[in-house]
Design brief:
With 271 residues, the chain is an alpha+beta fold. Helix content is 45%, strand content 17%. It has a domain at 118-260: Phosphorylase Kinase, domain 1. It has 7 helices and 7 strands, in the order αααααβαββββββα. A 7-stranded antiparallel beta sheet has the order 1-2-3-4-7-6-5, with helices on both faces. Strand 6 and strand 7 form a beta hairpin. The radius of gyration is 26 Å and the shape is elongated. The two termini are 38 Å apart. The relative contact order is 0.11.
């Protein structure tokens, strides 16, 4: 049965994350993720939230209830025949205790989230900085020009240690100018490809191996007038940067994402 014939609802996406779908629907959801990056991004974000919760509450202290709260023990306790009102200060103390616990859990998860976001924020900030530095260059915007494209991509692929693909953006009015080698943190090399339209508007694609960046969601960052979309594919990080409106840059980024993950895209170098 083709996945197009299977109706996928939002509850099916949640069931997919919880591994509660039939094999047929699992295939249908995964096919839908391949076709629609927005759905893939949503699922990746939910999976990350689940991972954070599991990581925080995985300690064995949460495996079973304390003995004092065992249901059989509670049932065995003789309840008073006459009811009485709990003193107000007991209720207030209980409320304050619950507020304190909620704040501690929230802040702990916040800490996990900030820690997980550091590598990708460092990556996209570097991509935006590189765009700001080189996109304004008149004589030397790139290190190797497009007339030496085969050499450029083979060289950058070897340095990044990953076979690179250069997307074709002519249908959006952008032509490849060339590219350059950049340095990221801890000596990791990165490849920057620059594209330009007829008005002189430029965008860049930055590619780098980033083993610490483990968030596969399709994310957005704005820095002053520069917008950037960035994502992770296995252990390769990508960022598309430019002074374009968010929706236009998102369309370009989606196109680049599709081409990089398509077998039909021209692969310009292999290692």
């Amino acid at each position: 049965m083709s996945h197009q014939n299977i109706d996928i609802q939002e509850q099916d996406l949640h069931a997919y994350i919880d591994q509660q779908l039939s094999p047929e629907k699992v295939k249908a959801v995964e096919a839908l993720m391949q076709e629609d990056p927005k759905i893939a991004t949503k699922i990746h974000q939910w999976q990350q939230q689940n991972d954070l919760i599991k990581k925080h509450f995985s300690h064995n202290q949460y495996d079973e209830l304390p003995k004092r709260l065992n249901i059989h023990r509670l049932n065995a306790i003789d309840q008073p025949k006459t009811s009485f009102a709990m003193p107000w200060y007991y209720s207030m103390a209980a409320s304050l205790f619950l507020m304190l616990i909620s704040s501690m859990v929230g802040w702990t998860l916040h800490g996990f989230s900030d820690s997980n976001q550091q590598p990708q924020l460092s990556f996209v900030n570097s991509a935006i900085s590189a765009y700001e530095v080189f996109s304004v260059e008149v004589l030397h915007p790139v290190e190797v020009s497009v007339d030496k494209k085969e050499h450029l991509v083979a060289w950058l692929s070897k340095r990044v240690k990953h076979p690179l693909k250069v997307p074709k953006l002519e249908q959006y009015g952008y032509n490849l100018l060339g590219g350059r080698l950049l340095a990221m943190k801890k000596g990791r090399p990165a490849a920057q490809f620059m594209f330009e339209d007829k008005t002189g508007q430029r965008i860049t694609l930055l590619v780098s191996k980033n083993p610490l960046y483990n968030d596969h969601a399709f994310l957005f960052k704005n820095e002053d007038k520069v917008n950037a979309f960035y994502w992770m594919d296995t252990n390769i990080a990508y960022s598309v940067s430019g002074k374009l409106q968010r929706d236009k840059l998102e369309a370009l980024s989606q196109e680049i994402y599709q081409q990089i993950n398509s077998n039909d895209t021209e692969q310009l170098a292999r290692i």
